[in-house]
């Protein structure tokens, strides 16, 4: 945890800053509003962290999310399936997208950047196809998952997101699988030459990413109470930003799930805080961009200090 | 005649987390080749980095041509040829030689002048005829090292630091390098020659300085050279170089049999080993001895049949993973690029292929115990299992990679230049590990250009010429000169 | 490691943020408890919505004592999830009224229902919410805005007057999930059917100029005899205009748009675009805010839709 102190401090200062400017900012409803909107980005940030640690990237997460969301909506409304049944199928769909990108990028030895960029287009296209380019309204059957009144003032999706963050961190730092992901991102050749076959790990990390997209889809679908084939355009960039703010390296080998989660919180607090002040759009974007770069810089300085 | 002084070091001190250099006073003369000796961690590389200009925050002063060395910038009269080559692999040989001062007009590179000067520089190190437009990653390590030396010469440096320059060179190449050192001296250039190989240092240097624990403990001029004194100065005790014990090889129990190995370079190569035998493969660069290791570890397209222990022949493994399942291990030549997980912990580096059950938790206690055990066997010096492997010296990093292959009950261990860039003491310790592994029944094949080193650990040395066995030599009856001759042609 | 260094760097971030903040919006910290109205827009990068926001600001400036205005937009027309988040955040901030131009006719309804549940007055402007779903969810949200169907029908009629029956035309639709896009497409279709003109191809360019340009260019190679283009908003009309200019068919193809943004207004004057419709963007949000203020003042007011005028803009009107 100590290595995330500077990030937590940045988060704290951000909250303090907005609370000073708007006394209504630091209140239970605002915190609930933030807690309610972060699960989808959190799932994607965990997915990106795991993929980026192996030295890859997954640009398709936003589109795969939209596809999974479309599957949930269409299956529930057109086919009359139950939520759990529809979610199960979307999990399968997300995993399949991951299997496809993972297999092509690993066995074909093609950079994941380009393969997932292709999947970004394909998955979005299939999402339009599945929904006939229409928003599918589902209603409270799924909406209840995003309601913060269900349990202890937080939504079920928020709890699930926290569970995934904890599991993701444990997977990365405590399991053999996680150590292999780090080792692959650090030096793929060394892993291969020590007699380990990296292929299953490289493919499976994309499957995990695709599966997490389905979780994110569930969360977004719940929040909108509908499936939107246009959902999450550009959200992959926010997820990458969250991961990088949290100290995940784009070159692979370094990063933590907890750090990425704090990155998500920083982005969400910033977004909500700026909205609560009603600042005009250009300034909002300039501030958001500056804070992302500053947060990443701070983490960089701190790691450098820790090394010296 | 009093020699002309090139550079004076006075009271140089430097510490990182602990003191590394304690008040070094040293003089370097023009046209002189000074040998710098010392065990790993003695401060050799820190001193060479200070001279090379990559460390500037040191105490004390270095004066050259009436100016402190610190005041020089890009025009520093010192060039360093690093032990771990630091070339830009995607650029051409010519661009690498002149990188930083490429001949250009308004930013456009003058290709003709670049090629001409590059070829001239290559000629100086005996690499005439090498296509300088080739990308640097397409040439082998030995040539790359010579190119680095060409770069230093081309920059008209007054002092060239050679850090372990011969570790990847074979004998004729070493002779060629020595010729270059002589001609550099004739041009009034000085050379700082850092090496572990005493015989080479004695052969080329005018003076030697021995570093131990950050201090200069011995300086000798050519006429005073004394191997015994140097060794004890380096280790701080009486020379402890152990003679290789007489080892028992069970003649007659074949436990490794390779038939009809064919790759691009190799034509029908055969090899049989007795149980626990250490075999050395020796040859000129590109002779094919390294390819044999790669083929056995599933790293190249190859055909052939192999049996380990049992009687049935199988085809060669297609991937390193398959090789590992047949209980074959491999220590690559370039440990930084292909061996280590730099920045990761020592325990992950050692236990990388010992972690079983990928779904399970990493048992920190168990990996720490395994690390400790492996470290004890290899005499690895480290602070703790979570220490970053990047902080280890070259010798200890190599031990960590050896440690990775311990406790696997291997049938065969393949070693590519296992002692390259490793100091005398660590080298002895690695030889000891190799011998112990062999006596526990693991067959070992070492491919190396360093004949002296092979002669220390091997029971048999096989020379390879143009992808074929040229001759075999057994420990009882070998002769260094004969082996070297055998690498040159098929008699 | 040194904590002081970290603290210093944090201080720098803090100072910079404050500077940026002060630079952008002088005073918000005071005025504790007046009426607060949140205007939730679609993309403020789109001139139409930017004009709408400016109109709202001007409206507020005229009566600064009456209410306080918080304007928020999303980064593009389709960033639905962010718009839902903004609504939730405004509820959390306990604003008195929300005036919203919804990015989607259905998906915003649950969030707006929550807002109503929290006692907030909600007014729907610009893009009409799905009436069936509102009825199903038993929420009443009044709509203040133009009738897009009749507006589009009138613009379409101008094009029809300039063409002859059985001519071919193309249609560029907005994002198909939005009600506005559906209404305008429907209006165009009605006008064309009436004049017996054939719509040979219709695709969505997602309200965007760049996308419209690419789509139009490819449609024109497939249907070289096309005489007219119906664009569901002016950005797409501009994109289509550029594509037509590129192949030098400006004289042969007539274009109509919707919204009357300034660039199109100029193009209409120059005779490059035939007609567009003015929904009086600058007043749209103001109408909504006025209605919200009325409802806040009078708890017993009846919730009903209010239609705002749509005016045709052609060369002779200017």
Outline the secondary-structure elements.
The complex is a heterotrimer of chains A (308), B (491) and C (318).
Chain A: H1 5-21, H2 28-37, H3 39-53, H4 61-77, H5 83-107, H6 112-131, E1 136-137, H7 140-143, H8 156-174, H9 176-186, H10 188-193, H11 199-224, E2 226-227, H12 235-245, H13 257-277, H14 281-307
Antiparallel strand pairs in A: 1-2
Chain B: E1 5-15, E2 19-29, E3 33-37, H1 44-52, E4 59-64, E5 67-68, E6 78-81, H2 93-97, E7 104-105, E8 108-109, H3 111-124, H4 141-154, E9 159-163, H5 171-186, E10 190-194, H6 198-204, E11 207-212, E12 215-221, H7 227-235, E13 254-262, E14 269-274, E15 278-283, H8 289-296, E16 303-308, E17 314-315, H9 320-325, E18 328-331, H10 335-339, H11 346-351, H12 364-378, H13 394-404, E19 412-416, H14 424-439, E20 443-447, H15 451-457, E21 460-465, E22 468-474, H16 480-488
Parallel strand pairs in B: 3-10, 3-11, 6-9, 9-10, 15-20, 15-21, 18-19, 19-20
Antiparallel strand pairs in B: 1-2, 1-4, 4-5, 7-8, 11-12, 13-14, 13-16, 16-17, 21-22
Helix pairs in contact in B: 3-4, 12-13
Chain C: H1 3-24, E1 35-43, H2 47-62, E2 67-74, H3 80-92, E3 97-100, H4 109-117, E4 121-125, H5 131-136, E5 143-146, H6 148-162, E6 168-173, H7 179-194, E7 198-204, H8 209-222, E8 228-231, H9 234-246, E9 254-256, H10 262-269, E10 275-278, H11 281-297, E11 306-308, E12 311-314
Helix pairs in contact in C: 2-11, 3-4, 6-7, 8-9
């Amino acid at each position: 945890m100590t290595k995330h102190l500077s990030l937590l401090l940045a988060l704290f200062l951000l909250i303090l800053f907005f609370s000073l400017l708007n006394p209504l900012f630091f209140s239970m409803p605002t915190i609930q509003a933030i807690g309610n909107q972060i699960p989808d980005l959190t799932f994607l940030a965990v997915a990106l962290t795991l993929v980026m640690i192996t030295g890859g990237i997954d640009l398709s997460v936003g589109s795969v999310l939209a596809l999974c969301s479309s599957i949930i909506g269409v299956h529930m409304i057109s086919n009359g399936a139950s939520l759990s049944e529809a979610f199960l199928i979307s999990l399968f769909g997300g995993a399949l997208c991951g299997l496809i990108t993972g297999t092509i990028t690993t066995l074909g030895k093609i950079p994941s950047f380009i393969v997932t960029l292709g999947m970004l287009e394909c998955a979005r296209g299939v999402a339009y196809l599945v929904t006939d380019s229409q928003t599918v309204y589902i209603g409270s059957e799924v909406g209840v998952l995003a309601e913060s009144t269900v349990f202890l003032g937080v939504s079920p999706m928020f709890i699930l997101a926290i569970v995934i963050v904890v599991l993701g961190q444990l997977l990365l730092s405590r399991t053999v699988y996680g150590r292999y992901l780090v080792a692959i991102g650090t030096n793929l050749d060394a892993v291969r030459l020590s007699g380990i076959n990296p292929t299953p790990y490289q493919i499976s990390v994309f499957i995990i990413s695709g599966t997490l997209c389905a979780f994110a889809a569930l969360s977004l679908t719940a929040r909108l109470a509908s499936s939107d084939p246009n959902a999450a355009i550009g959200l992959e960039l926010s997820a990458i930003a969250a991961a990088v703010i949290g100290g995940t390296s784009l070159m692979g080998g370094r990063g933590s799930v907890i750090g990425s989660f704090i990155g998500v919180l920083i982005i969400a607090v910033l977004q909500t805080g700026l909205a609560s002040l009603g600042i005009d759009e250009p300034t909002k974007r300039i501030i958001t961009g500056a804070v992302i770069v500053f947060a990443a810089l701070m983490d960089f300085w701190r790691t450098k200090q820790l090394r010296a | 005649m009093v020699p002309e002084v090139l550079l004076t070091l006075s009271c140089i001190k430097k510490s990182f987390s602990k003191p590394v250099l304690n008040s070094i006073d040293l003089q370097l003369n023009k046209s002189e080749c000074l040998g710098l000796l010392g065990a790993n961690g003695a401060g050799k590389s820190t001193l060479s980095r200070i001279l090379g200009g990559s460390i500037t925050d040191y105490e004390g002063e270095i004066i050259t041509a009436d100016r402190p060395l610190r005041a020089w910038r890009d025009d520093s009269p010192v060039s360093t040829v690093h032990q771990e080559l630091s070339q830009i692999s995607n650029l051409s040989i010519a661009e690498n030689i002149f990188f930083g001062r490429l001949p250009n007009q308004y930013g456009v590179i003058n290709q003709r002048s670049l090629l001409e000067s590059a070829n001239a520089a290559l000629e100086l190190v005996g690499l005439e005829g090498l296509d300088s437009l080739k990308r640097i990653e397409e040439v082998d390590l030995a040539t790359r090292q010579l190119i680095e030396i060409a770069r230093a010469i081309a920059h008209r440096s007054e002092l060239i630091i050679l850090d372990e320059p011969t570790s990847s060179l074979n004998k004729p190449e070493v002779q060629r390098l020595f010729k270059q050192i002589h001609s550099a001296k004739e041009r009034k250039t000085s050379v700082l020659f850092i090496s572990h190989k005493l015989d080479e240092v004695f052969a080329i240097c005018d003076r030697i300085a021995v570093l131990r624990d950050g201090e200069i403990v011995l300086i000798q001029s050519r006429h005073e050279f004394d191997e015994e004194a140097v060794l004890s100065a380096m280790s701080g005790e009486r020379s402890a170089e152990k003679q290789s014990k007489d080892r028992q090889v069970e003649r007659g129990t074949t436990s490794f049999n390779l038939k009809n190995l064919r790759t691009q370079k190799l034509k029908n190569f055969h090899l049989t080993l007795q149980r626990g035998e250490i075999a050395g493969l020796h040859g000129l660069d590109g002779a094919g001895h390294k390819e044999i290791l790669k083929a056995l570890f599933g790293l190249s397209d190859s055909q052939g049949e192999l049996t380990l222990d049992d009687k049935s022949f199988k085809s060669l493994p297609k991937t390193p993973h398959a090789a590992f399942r047949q209980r074959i291990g491999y220590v690559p030549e370039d440990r930084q690029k292909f061996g280590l997980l730099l920045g990761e912990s020592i325990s992950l580096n050692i236990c990388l292929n010992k972690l079983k059950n990928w779904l399970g938790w990493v048992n920190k206690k168990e990996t720490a115990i395994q690390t400790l055990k492996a470290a004890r066997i290899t005499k690895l010096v480290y602070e703790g299992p979570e220490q970053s492997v990047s902080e280890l010296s070259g010798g200890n990093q190599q031990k960590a990679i050896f440690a990775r292959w311990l406790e696997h009950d291997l049938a065969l261990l393949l070693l590519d230049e296992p002692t390259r860039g490793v100091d005398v003491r660590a080298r002895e310790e690695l030889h000891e590990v190799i011998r112990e592994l062999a006596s526990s029944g693991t067959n070992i094949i070492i491919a190396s250009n360093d004949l002296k080193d092979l002669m220390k650990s091997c029971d048999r040395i096989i020379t390879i010429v143009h992808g074929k066995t040229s001759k075999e030599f057994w420990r009882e009856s070998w002769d260094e000169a004969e082996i070297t001759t055998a690498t040159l042609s098929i008699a | 490691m040194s904590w002081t260094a970290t603290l210093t760097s944090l201080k720098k971030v803090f100072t910079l943020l404050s500077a940026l903040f002060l630079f952008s919006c002088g005073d918000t910290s005071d005025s504790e408890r007046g009426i607060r109205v949140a205007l939730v827009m679609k993309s403020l990068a789109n001139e139409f919505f930017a004009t709408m926001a400016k109109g709202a600001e001007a409206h507020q400036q005229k009566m600064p004592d009456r209410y306080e205005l918080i304007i928020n937009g999303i980064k593009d027309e389709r960033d639905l999830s962010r718009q839902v988040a903004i609504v939730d955040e405004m509820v959390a901030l306990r604003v008195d009224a929300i005036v919203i131009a919804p990015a989607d006719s259905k998906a915003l309804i649950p969030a707006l229902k929550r807002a109503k549940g929290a006692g907030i007055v909600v007014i729907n402007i610009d893009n009409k919410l799905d009436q069936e779903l509102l009825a199903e969810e038993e929420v009443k949200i009044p709509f203040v805005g133009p009738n897009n169907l009749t507006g589009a029908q009138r613009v379409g009629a101008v094009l029809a007057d300039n063409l002859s029956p059985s001519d071919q035309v193309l249609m560029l639709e907005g994002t198909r999930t939005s009600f506005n896009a559906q209404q305008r497409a429907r209006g165009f279709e009605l006008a064309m059917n009436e004049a017996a003109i054939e719509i040979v191809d219709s695709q969505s360019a997602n309200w965007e100029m760049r996308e419209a340009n690419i789509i139009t260019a490819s449609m024109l190679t497939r249907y070289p005899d096309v005489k007219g283009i119906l664009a569901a908003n002016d950005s797409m009309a501009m994109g289509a205009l550029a594509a037509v200019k590129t192949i030098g068919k400006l004289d042969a193809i007539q274009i109509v748009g919707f919204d009357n943004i300034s660039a199109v207004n100029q193009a209409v004057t120059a005779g490059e675009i035939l007609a567009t419709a003015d929904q009086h963007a600058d007043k749209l949000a103001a109408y909504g805010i006025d209605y919200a203020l009325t409802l806040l003042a009078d708890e017993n007011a009846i919730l009903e839709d209010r239609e705002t005028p749509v005016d045709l803009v052609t060369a002779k009107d200017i």
